[in-house]
Design a protein that fits this description.
Elements lengths: L1 H39 L10 E9 L17 E4 L4 E6 L4 E6 L1 E2 L4 E4 L2 E8 L3 E6 L1 E3 L2 E3 L5 E7 H6 L5 H4 L4 H16 L12 E4 L4 E5 L14 H4 L2 E7 L5 E9 L5 E6 L6 H22 E4 L2 E2 L2 E2 L2 E10 L2 H6 L1
């Protein structure tokens, strides 16, 4: 009986020792993982206090411009004050602003409302990858858009250059744009957004044109790209033959000629749609072509076909309105 009891006690001790060993090992493993995680946190101590200016922002293919006319523009200036804060230049407020800096594993950090990943870091240059953020998650594979920074001292004293020169479009960008410009000017259905948008000059004081402008703020992340990706113009015609308001898009070719594209409102009746198209086309062919000089949009100084949106309002004279 006592032999059985001793065996049972020994077995219990072995089990208890096994549990203790497992717990100890798990704790050590967790501690090791925690230390490993802490070691993986990106640190900016080696470059603190160095001012960096972004000189390139490129897609994975090495181009700054895509086939739709969207151009990635280098804009950032940054100084890592500490591992917990960064000073970033605001082109809107014309001064540096301090932002909290959130560090993560795998060289990921957040500053100035952007998630970024360090690809290269030294005292002369930085390469950061822009990460996509949605709700509470981050796409760690990135957007395949890369920001290249040079230290201000490196630009001045080693490269003997300046930011304006370094930010000029590359030869590859120029050749790419030449190709899509040739296609757009041969076939306006291949039109793309012009970096310098179409401009209008009125020949009459009775006709005014204003381009709608995006107000940069935190809601749009201070991004005003829509001003050239989808330029919209409000045109007012005074002393028109009657009151009217039409919204439609046109393609302005490389010669400055307007080509009707489509109405910008929805329709429930086909007859009304066809009437709307016919009348708005007449407005374009008469008032707009007669009273406006049109300069085509350009990208890298090359004129090309691009699509714009128009909201055209016709107003009759006040005296005539009173008589009616």
């Amino acid at each position: 009986m006592f032999t059985t009891i001793r065996k049972t006690i020994k077995a219990s001790i072995f089990i208890l020792l096994g549990v203790i060993t497992i717990i100890y090992t798990s704790c050590n493993s967790a501690s090791s993982n925690s230390n490993k995680h802490n070691k993986e946190l990106i640190s900016f101590k080696s470059i603190q206090g160095i001012g960096y200016t972004e000189v390139q922002r490129l897609q994975r293919n090495g181009l700054a411009i895509n086939e739709y006319g969207y151009q990635l523009e280098p804009q950032w200036q940054i100084n890592f004050v500490s591992d917990d804060s960064a000073s970033v230049y605001s082109p809107i407020k014309k001064r540096f602003l301090n932002f909290p800096l959130t560090r993560g594993s795998d060289s990921i950090f957040n500053a100035a409302r952007a998630w970024l990943k360090v690809k290269k870091m030294n005292k002369d240059s930085l390469i950061l990858e822009i990460l996509k953020a949605k709700n509470d998650s981050i796409e760690v594979n990135g957007s395949k858009v890369y920001m290249t920074f040079y230290a201000d001292d490196y630009i001045k004293n080693v490269l003997h250059s300046d930011t304006g020169i370094l930010r000029r479009p590359s030869r590859r960008d120029t050749l790419f744009v030449k190709g899509i410009v040739a296609k757009a000017n041969k076939d306006i259905t291949k039109a793309f957004a012009a970096r310098q948008v179409v401009t209008f000059q009125s020949r009459s004081p009775q006709v005014s044109v204003n381009q709608e402008r995006t107000v940069p703020n935190e809601l749009n992340n201070f991004d005003t790209a829509d001003d050239y990706l989808g330029p919209t113009f409000d045109i007012t015609i005074n002393k028109a033959y009657k009151e009217f308001y039409y919204s439609f898009s046109v393609c302005v070719d490389d010669k400055g000629q307007m080509h009707y594209v489509k109405p910008l409102i929805g329709f429930t009746e086909e007859d009304y749609k066809q009437s709307y198209i016919r009348l708005s086309k007449q407005i374009m062919e008469t008032y707009l072509k007669y009273y406006l000089n049109v300069k085509p949009g350009t990208t890298l100084s090359m004129p090309h076909a691009s699509v714009i949106s128009l909201h055209v309002e016709g107003k009759v004279a006040a005296a005539e309105t009173a008589k009616k």
